[in-house]
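Researcher: Sequence of CBS domain-containing protein follows. Predict its structure.
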Amino acid sequence: MRTLKVLDVMTRDVTTVREDTPYKEIVTKLVNSEVSGLPVLSPTGVVVGVVSEGDLLFNEGSAGKHERWHDVLHPSQAHKADGRVARDLMSQPAVTTQPNTPVRKAAALLARNGYKRLPVVDAVGRLLGIVSRRDVLGAFLRADHDIANEVKHEVLLRTMSIDPATVDVDVKDGVVTLSGRLERKSHVTVVESLTHAIDGVVDVVNELTFETDDESVRLVDPVDGTQLRDLW
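Model: Prediction complete. Tokens:
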């Protein structure tokens, strides 16, 4: 099965700032690019942080701002109230991903941390692109018939050597319903797991049955009755 990777969905043309980019220039780039955050690059193109709208709000240019922010901010963030350039305002280290990361893992990272986008970097941290929530959600826009074909030909036939005619695969709005009868119980479990891993699958309804419960067949020591290993 081919797993959709960050490389397949990322945006390559990325607006960035340097560590010494001034506050107002950062704001201008954010507004013009219609994004909420920008990667901050070192002179060699390595991502050293991300500066976001939230970071910029610490310095709003009002009288008395320092006293207000320094009273309520954690010391690790208080310096942003005085920040004038990207290196003083950015959040670091940047949370990044790599081009060969599966889209599902990137989606989980975005959701777990509440981020809207992730810089995509190479092995040494140089920027290659950006992947956003919208990019990863695009993986779920696959047509139902494409998902059904992948279940039949990649999961059943190619991976499991199971005749696709023995399994009914129904896909509606990304939800896959599997029904039919397989030879082994262990096959039912594996087929469900592999189907879940297909890009575009929202959920799997497993109605498969089986001929043999091979998961409960064990080899037992004839002397003391202890389990030696699984038969399969």
